[in-house]
């Protein structure tokens, strides 16, 4: 029975969970100093890294793994703060886009230097460039399996082959999903 508890797959999940929760605590602290929640940051970073700084609301929900009502509430808050606006989708009247405003971009320019410093201090500086590249490849493989919609709408694709390019050029999150 002890073999069951010593399974390296359990260890891998435990280490991933511990690293994730530890980094999330560091990110939350840094973002709170700017009056921003980790969920608001994730929405803004995904918009800022998307073509034309916009995503359909449904794609934004898929990328963040929030429900459609959850993403609506977050976008409502960001819209009240002037950081995001909604635009109707000309191709589909049932859809709308969340679009980052100039004020949203300015806010992210204030927040990002400190956020990048937290990432560097607690995460990337602890890995060699080779380890980081291997980790990124491994995380993409797992992410693509468990969250196939994680890059939805990240690029105006012409086909499935564009999905990986969307992630590399702009929509892999630099903060954990909440």
Question: Would you mind describing this structure in some detail?
Answer:
The protein is mainly alpha-helical and 178 residues long. It has a single domain, classed as Winged helix-like DNA-binding domain superfamily/Winged helix DNA-binding domain (Arc Repressor Mutant, subunit A). Helix content is 62%, strand content 7%. It is built from eight helices and three strands, in the order H-H-H-E-H-H-E-E-H-H-H. A three-stranded antiparallel β-sheet has the order 1-3-2. Strand 2 and strand 3 form a beta hairpin. Helix 2 packs across helix 6 and helix 4 packs across helix 5. The chain starts with a helix and ends in a 7-residue tail after the last helix. The C terminus is likely disordered.
């Amino acid at each position: 029975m002890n073999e069951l508890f010593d399974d390296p797959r359990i260890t891998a999940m435990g280490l991933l969970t511990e690293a994730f929760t530890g980094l999330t605590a560091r990110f939350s602290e840094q973002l709170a100093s700017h009056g921003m929640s980790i969920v608001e940051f994730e929405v803004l970073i995904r918009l800022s890294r998307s073509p034309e700084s916009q995503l359909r609301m449904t794609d934004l929900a898929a990328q963040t793994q929030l429900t459609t009502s959850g993403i609506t509430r977050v976008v409502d808050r960001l819209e009240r703060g002037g950081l995001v606006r909604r635009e109707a989708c000309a191709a589909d009247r049932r859809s709308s886009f969340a679009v980052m405003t100039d004020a949203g971009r300015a806010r992210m320019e204030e927040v990002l230097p400190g956020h990048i410093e937290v990432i560097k201090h607690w995460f990337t500086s602890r890995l060699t460039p080779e380890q980081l590249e291997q980790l990124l490849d491994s995380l993409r493989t797992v992410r693509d399996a468990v969250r196939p919609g994680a890059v939805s709408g990240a690029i105006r694709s012409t086909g499935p082959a564009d999905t990986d390019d969307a992630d590399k050029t702009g929509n892999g999150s630099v903060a954990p999903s909440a």
